[in-house]
Amino acid sequence: MNMDEALVRATIPQDLVKVLCVEPRTRYKAEAFTEAFLKNSIKPRSCHNLKSMLTHKAVVLGYARPKKDKGKSKRAKGLNAQQKRAMKVFQIKPEHQRYELFLPLHELWRQYVIDLCNGLKPTCNPQFVQQKLLKADFHGAIITVVRSKCPSYVGATGILVQEFKHIFKIITKEDKLKVIPKRNSVFAVEVNGFVSHIYGSKFEQRASERSAKKFKVRGTIDL
Amino acid sequence: MAGQMKDKDAYQRLNYLYQAAHCVLSQNPENVELARFYCFTQKTIARRLVLRQDPSVKRTLCKKCCSLLVPGVTASTRQRRKSRKARFTVVRCLSCEQSKTLLNDPDHCLWVDRPEAQQKQPGPGPSAKKQQPKDKKPAESASSKPRAAQSRGST
């Protein structure tokens, strides 16, 4: 038994790494993967409530197999709003709301923005950077609420996890998921010394719509 | 020129979202919801700007619930045989049970890779070329995709 366990936990030998084109994962990652794999591959039993089904439901003895309709195609139709709500498609479970899990995402975001702005040197034209950031993606950025009509939002800092039409969902260092409305607030994003402010009232669109929409240069900003 | 640059931004954004979904899943394999959100955003951006995604990207997204299909984590991959010769790779999404069936054909050539696709339409030619470096980048982060390609080629 002990031997088997040791075998399972053994790391991949160096000479095999090249042949198999795999790289060993860190211990934490391997554990997380194994747990998720086991959880996903073991299906919940459907017959565990067999007894209750037998006592509470009429069982049809003369059972004819239902005819298959051939006209129906198997093409995926997507989910409707009701099914989405029932599945909770975009809701992050409370046990996954941990700040350190999102740090690699932030690192990836930094690389993305630097790549987007062609290196982002300190000599860059601020307007050019802002023009790029307008169409960029902000998932993974660390944002801070600078000004807001509601004073309790001011100073909230965290990694932006989800962006909806009227709402930013950020995760703070205290592992809390905070929901901050975009309207009537000003956010600050910091990359490599560049600090750009986002006027939330002008940003009230879905993340996907922003890339296609044109922004008006003029316009009053009141807070 | 300006149109091309704008497209580049959008492709970079799609690339980032795809990588972010992989990053989230590799950090926490059970956080399917967030990865799904990013893929959903990626899909809607591509739809709004009418950008074509590479088949290798499309094959790793669920058509029904938009989640990222990583074999063993969010999808199960099986080999199935329908007739004598034809074998299929069946990828089934574990959260919505939607499955996609891919024919194992080593000689299969995508339309983008074919020579006549490049010659006939000079307009979409550069965009197709741009897509290729784009989907090479996520391949580095996603270890699953080369594996799937290998299985498709070998069987």
TrEMBL record, chain A:
It comes from the Eukaryota. GO terms for biological process: rRNA processing; tRNA 5'-leader removal. It is found in: Nucleus, Nucleolus. InterPro entries: RNase_P/MRP_Rpp29-subunit, RNase_P/MRP_Rpp29_sf, Rof/RNase_P-like, Rpp29/RNP1. The keyword Nucleus applies. GO terms for cellular component: nucleolus; ribonuclease MRP complex; ribonuclease P complex. It holds the Pfam family RNase_P-MRP_p29. Keywords: Nucleus, Phosphoprotein, tRNA processing. One of its GO terms (molecular function) is ribonuclease P RNA binding. Component of nuclear RNase P and RNase MRP ribonucleoproteins. RNase P consists of a catalytic RNA moiety and 10 different protein chains; POP1, POP4, POP5, POP7, RPP14, RPP21, RPP25, RPP30, RPP38 and RPP40. Within the RNase P complex, POP1, POP7 and RPP25 form the 'finger' subcomplex, POP5, RPP14, RPP40 and homodimeric RPP30 form the 'palm' subcomplex, and RPP21, POP4 and RPP38 form the 'wrist' subcomplex. All subunits of the RNase P complex interact with the catalytic RNA. Several subunits of RNase P are also part of the RNase MRP complex. Component of ribonuclease P, a ribonucleoprotein complex that generates mature tRNA molecules by cleaving their 5'-ends. Belongs to the eukaryotic/archaeal RNase P protein component 1 family. This is Ribonuclease P protein subunit p29.
TrEMBL record, chain B:
It comes from the Eukaryota. Transmembrane segments: none annotated. Keywords: Metal-binding, tRNA processing, Zinc. GO terms for molecular function: metal ion binding. GO terms for cellular component: nucleolar ribonuclease P complex. The keyword Metal-binding applies. Residues 113-155 are annotated as: Disordered. Pfam families: Rpr2. One of its GO terms (biological process) is tRNA processing. PANTHER family: RIBONUCLEASE P PROTEIN SUBUNIT P21, RIBONUCLEASE P SUBUNIT P21. Belongs to the eukaryotic/archaeal RNase P protein component 4 family. This is Uncharacterized protein. The lineage of its organism: Eukaryota, Metazoa, Chordata, Craniata, Vertebrata.
